[in-house]
Write a structure and sequence with these properties.
The structure is a homodimer of 223-residue chains.
Chain A (H helix, E strand, L loop, with lengths): L9 H14 L12 H8 L3 H14 L2 E4 L3 E4 L8 H7 L2 H22 L2 H16 L4 H17 L4 H24 L5 H16 L3 H19 L1
Antiparallel strand pairs in A: 1-2
Helix pairs in contact in A: 1-3, 2-3, 5-7, 5-8, 5-9, 5-10, 6-7, 6-9, 7-8, 9-10
The first copy, chain A, binds a DNA duplex (30 and 30 nucleotides) through helix 3.
Chain lengths: 223, 223
DNA sequence: ACTCATCAGGTTGTCTGAGGAGTTCGCCCA
DNA sequence: TGGGCGAACTCCTCAGACAACCTGATGAGT
């Protein structure tokens, strides 16, 4: 194919060459690339062109350049879209990951929660109870409650992880609750209330335990 | 704030400005940006700097440039990918998330590990000990060991999460071990051996506990 | 023997000027 | 009216110069 319809500019071609070399393992993770001038001469392109190629890979998150130090490999491959991973994964797998995150977050929340956090959590707990009979509404309120707990842990990474789980878990829960409604809404609500109490009491162990047991029960419903 | 320590080069700052302008809707989807010279003068930067900023956004998939035609907006919002989130997050935050995942994974591994898993874990444990004095080498061997444990949990989501942590954690650990080497490599190795024993014995609680205490100690070194 | 400032070399960052290559659009002429 | 043509605009590439910065070595001082 004599250079397909879309002719790649030199910079883009150069970026492809670099990425290929990284993928092949020639430049492993954390490795420093040869200098700009060296590399440009080696590839037969101008320094500006090479710099633009590097920039493109920086934008992809594959490279990172530090002035005076060099250009380093920060990822061996372009990170696969997280959504596709979760979509492919089983609900049980996702729930197990959710258990890991929420149990840890519950303990951290018990340790770090501010009065404002506590107010938000209690408001969400009340909102959880008051919702109508629509399944979606109930699930959304439940998710919102769990999120307030994780926010109280004051850890951005945990929050981001939870957020990325939401779409997948939400759909699964809606489907399940349609087929098999909760046996005892009162017990379900009590479990959540226990968690709130543990966080309010700054009881790390109890918070983690309540969170874990509640979600494990949920997981059993899917298994 | 930690981010002020990391000085952004002009090109990166320019990329941020452009992205902000796109996000705000000033340049809607499909819109053509002003020319290089115009835009560079308008932003008060050199042409090549602006070009590098554009390249970075091309790498992110937000912009697309066609020779002779112009630069066009191809996406309004960049899918906040995990790499950038983790890069921005503090090491402690990432480690707390890692604790959550690994403690859970350790318990699951104790429950589900196959003989093959156990062999892989033990082989990685031996590899961890035998490495030379190079810091990178040691960190890589350590990461490889922890990964085998998570693989033994037989949960793809957990593995993917761990993998996405690796680049960030790896660099932080290398940097730290350079300035503050391990006080007692023997104790460190013993902690890992304990974890392996617990997994071999199918002791869920002990596996989770060893994993948690080990990583918590690591977290303390960064805090 | 140890600590610290200083220096030199190499690296990325930025700007400018020049010319090449491609696209677009309107003008002119048949 | 239709088609060819070219001017004007755009991005693409290169080269050179200088600034900002990091790293490792060197040497003076303690």
């Amino acid at each position: 194919m004599a250079s397909s319809v879309q002719r790649h500019p030199l910079a883009a071609q150069t970026a492809d060459v670099l990425l290929e070399r990284i993928r092949s393992g020639e430049w492993p993770l954390g490795h420093r690339l040869p200098g700009e001038t060296t590399l440009a001469a080696w590839l037969g392109v101008g320094r500006s062109t090479l710099r633009e190629a590097v920039r493109e890979l920086v934008g992809k998150g594959v490279l990172d350049s530090r002035q005076g130090a060099g250009v380093f490999v920060t990822a061996v491959d372009v990170t696969e879209d997280w959504d596709t991973i979760l979509r492919r994964a089983s609900v049980v797998s996702v729930l197990e990951a959710r258990i890991a995150i929420e149990a840890e977050a519950a303990a951290l929340a018990a340790e770090r929660r501010t009065p404002a956090d506590l107010r938000a959590i209690r408001r969400a707990l009340a909102g959880r109870e008051g919702t109508g009979r629509a399944v979606e509404e109930h699930v959304d309120a439940d998710m919102a409650f769990h999120r307030t707990v994780i926010v109280a842990a004051h850890n951005d990474v945990l929050v981001e992880m939870f957020d990325s789980f939401v779409p997948r878990v939400r759909r699964a829960m809606v489907d399940m609750l349609r087929i098999r409604p909760l046996a005892s809404p009162e017990a379900d609500h009590a479990a959540h209330a226990d968690l709130v109490t543990a966080i309010a009491d700054r009881d790390l162990r109890a918070a983690a335990e309540f969170s874990r047991s509640h979600l494990t029960a949920l997981k059993r419903a899917f298994a």
